[in-house]
Here is the input.
Amino acid sequence: QIHDYTADCLEKMKTAGGTPDFIQPGNEITYGMLWPSGKVYASSTPDWTNFTAYLSNAIKACREECPDSKIVLQTEMSSTYAVNTFYQAMKDRQIDYDIIGLSYYPAYHGNLAKLNTELTTLENAYPSKKLMIVETGYSSQWAINGTTFDYTDTYPYTETGQANFTNDLITMLLQHKNVNGLFWWWPEANEYNASTSVTSAWWNASLFNNKTGYALKALYQLKNFK
Here is the structure.
């Protein structure tokens, strides 16, 4: 079913003229997919059989329908799970993919030094794989919901603080020869002129000011990643 569903989605995309360059089978799959049967954890003894069967069938469809597309396996930098453990499990089970994709949000995952260490570990362990930051974001006004790491001593929740974080992130990423992608999550989120007033519950790590509607400095920093 996963193979057929994936193939059907990709066939419709191709027919519409939207053949993807990159495909992620699953989103942030550090803990598996299609719970409960495809659930995996590092804190116990994970059973990878169902999960890797699901993943392999999805990837098979991707290769068949879009042979030129690159396969990205996306994980989040969870504090309760060693990312390297996940990719080692993929290597041990000979999962077919091209790119290691990481979600990195300082609010949940810690400082840039932690990301730098993780990238170095992954580059050394899997030198044939490219790496991408497939999700990131940093607030420009107030803490985003669920924040567990306060980085405001270095990057205040201001337009300049957000821009400085973006600049330092890019500077660090460019030091890693295998990193070839950077994607800001939901950059266009903008509550300006919404039917309700600006709220602190709104996703506050976009690249637009929710109160004025104007683009923030960090948007223009992204062009430096090249």
User: Anything to note?
Assistant: The beta strands are 22-23, 70-76, 99-104, 130-136, 179-182. The chain has seven helices and five strands. The longest helix spans residues 48-65. The chain has a mean pLDDT of 93.
